[in-house]
Write a structure and sequence with these properties.
single chain; alpha/beta; Rossmann fold; 2 domains; 4-stranded parallel sheet; binds pyridoxal-5'-phosphate
């Protein structure tokens, strides 16, 4: 028996996955601000239009999160309490997509970081845990938040449970209706879930009065959650993407991947993440961009966004609000305009009008590339990946897979052995109904017209 096992091992050509020990997990998050050639422009106070001060944010966010938001320190320590809970699912595997490579018959080597192994099925828990922790040590009792596809709300719900805070989630109405399972998961984790827009806030009532049939948007749900936090005692708001501190927490993804790629003996030519507000993309890409800035490494970082919500490829760089109503500070971002309502595609987590300030600055400076992918190509890529790697990807993550496939096919054409790394930000088991729609040819491609985008962004100049 022993001999047969030995023989099988010898026959194995490539290692399938690279696993770190818990003790190899990074003890710090990486803050790219320290190494950016051009620092991001300051956020502005939405009332005074003056550079935002940390104090301005503390009514909404926990103190330590605000400190991180403004920090230029290169490494920020991960608290032990957070580290211990990370161990439930971290370090996550780095996987060689050998099945996909074979299906594409490409000389490229494709690796993915598997964030779908987290108990909530996505990368979102990487920031939910520290966010709840930093609220808890400050004595905060309640958190409000928004959720699109339900991933962030789910992560915050279980993180709240771990640290003993209660969580109220405003869920974009279209997802609340299309994805009832996510709502059930949040309730199982002990959260209260409210479809947005709702009648429970002024922001929600205003939008319902104007557009009663609206599918809702992340921007609107953020407005409702922030309003509720501002008007309730011992309550703060938590945001699952866009802000610097969220991307910071996600860098554990790229920091682990960096070690794992080293073990694999490869270095990525291309790093790809799907793009909603930018957190999982920042998480996988920033630690590698660090090598570009500090060691002159030649690595491309590509953000994969949906054609229906193309802020990085078709938006403009402007100061804009992070939400639909204007509660958040004004952020220097690539945006489609804060009241842009994207078509109801199935990658709900990518239906957000703007990109975070750090990614926006990096894109402006040419360090980040962006491409858009339509819904049909996305699901086609998702199915190919599922059938060859065994994991059904979240529709969001399938955007990154689609771009990885494009690059692998390009490498085949050119006959080059490119090394491609993408982030599998989540699995799609709870989104499985959207795959069924794809098979029934019920999915459509949506692309906002240039006019539609112009109209939406033309309102922005009035903001300053
Ligand atoms: C939320 C989500 C995204 C998009 O958010 P980012 O902040 O851009 O990462 C992508 N993939 C999955 C699985 C998500 O849950």
């Amino acid at each position: 028996m022993a001999n047969i096992a030995y023989w099988n091992l010898k026959k194995m050509k490539t290692t399938k996955k690279y696993i770190l020990h818990e003790s190899d997990m990074p003890k710090f998050w990486y803050n790219i601000v320290a190494d950016m050639p051009n620092k991001p422009m300051p956020m502005l106070n939405s009332q005074t239009k003056q550079p935002l001060q940390p104090d301005d944010m503390e009514a909404i966010f926990a103190h330590e999160l605000v400190r991180q938001e403004f920090s230029a320190e290169r490494y920020i320590p991960i608290p032990e309490e957070v580290f211990d809970l990370y161990k439930i699912y971290r370090p996550t595997p780095l996987v060689r997509a050998s099945g996909l490579e074979k299906a594409l018959d490409t000389p490229a080597k494709i690796y993915f970081k598997n964030e779908s192994v987290s108990p909530v099925g996505s990368h979102k828990l990487n920031s939910a845990l520290p966010q709840v922790y930093f609220n808890k040590i400050q004595g905060i009792k309640h958190l409000t938040t928004e959720t699109g596809a339900g991933q962030w709300g789910t992560a915050l719900s279980i993180a709240g449970q771990h640290f003993g805070l209660d969580v109220k989630v405003y869920m974009v109405r279209i997802s609340y209706e299309q994805k009832p399972y996510r709502k059930m998961v949040m309730r199982t984790y002990g959260a209260e879930v409210i479809p947005s827009p709702s009648l429970t806030t002024e922001a929600g009532r205003k939008i319902l009065a104007e557009t009663p049939d609206t599918p809702g948007s992340l921007g609107t749900a953020i407005s409702e959650a922030v309003e509720t936090a501002l008007h309730s005692p011992d309550t703060r708001y938590a945001l699952g993407s866009t802000l610097n501190h969220v991307g910071l927490h996600q860098t554990i993804v790229g920091l682990e991947a960096e070690k794992q790629m080293e073990i694999a003996g490869d270095y990525p030519d291309i790093v790809i993440g799907c793009f909603g507000g930018g957190s999982n993309f920042s998480g996988i890409a920033f630690p590698f961009l660090r090598h570009k800035f500090t060691e002159g490494k030649d690595v491309r970082a590509i953000a994969a966004e949906p054609a229906s919500c193309p802020k990085l490829t078709h938006g403009i760089f402007q100061y804009d609000y992070g939400d639909a109503i204007g509660f958040t500070p004004m952020i220097p971002m690539y945006t489609l305009g804060h009241d842009f309502t994207p078509a109801s595609i199935h990658a709900g987590g990518l239906r957000y009008h703007g990109a975070g300030a750090l990614v926006s600055q990096l894109r402006r400076d040419g360090f980040v590339e962006a491409v858009d992918v339509d819904q049909i190509e996305t699901f086609k890529a998702g199915v190919l990946f599922a059938r060859n790697e065994g994991i059904i990807p979240a529709p969001e993550s399938a955007h990154a897979i689609a771009v990885a496939i494009r690059e692998a096919l390009k490498a085949k054409e050119e006959g080059t052995e490119k090394v491609i790394l993408f982030n599998l930000s989540g699995h799609g088991l709870i989104d499985i109904a959207s795959y069924e729609q794809y098979f029934c040819n019920e999915l459509q491609n949506y692309q906002p017209s240039a006019n539609e985008i112009n109209e939406s962004v033309s309102k922005l100049d009035k903001l300053l």
